[in-house]
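quick one, 214 residues, struct below
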Amino acid sequence: MRALFVLLLAALPALAQAPEAITVLERREIALESIPGSPSHELRLTLAYLEGSGWLPEVIVIAAQESARILGQCGVALRSADLVRVAAPSRYHDFRTPVSRQLAATLQLGKPTVYFVAGTRQQPAFDAEAIGRGNSRSRPELADSVWITRGTRDLGIALAHELAHVLMDSGEHSEEPGNLMRDETAPGNTRVLDGQCARLRGTGSAHGLLVPLR
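---
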């Protein structure tokens, strides 16, 4: 008994240092409505949400569908997406660079990935944040990802806006009335200019985020 007790005491530090479990609970492909016209590129998207973060899958699907309609202006089709439900300790439920890097590195999901999280601990705090190649050099695990918090308004428009940032690999905003890339998302801000579409398709294809269809 004494020997067993000693062994248990020796094991306690190792147990305390055991890595926290990050697990994919469910992965399924969701079909999105067809977009009219003849698209030139396809976007294959991964949508990941954390169990206990307050997100419902049906809300995410509706947002993805609205985003698909907006990006369809650029000849980009979003016909389906991988919906991934993730279990992780509560410290991962908010976007914060150190822990979110660990989350992304552990999951190794397909790119681009949209993470639906509870909130953010970044400063300055944004409801949604896009991380492309240009702003991920010090945090490469987060490249080609979007982080959407529960406080995000106009969800489908915000998702399309952040995906456009990632696909264009640019943080630029537009002052054009009604433009998707205005710095504030709003119900009327959904139009995309030809030049923006060309950059989105060109850079997105070069980075392997869009698949040419013709």
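The first helix runs from residue 2 to 16.
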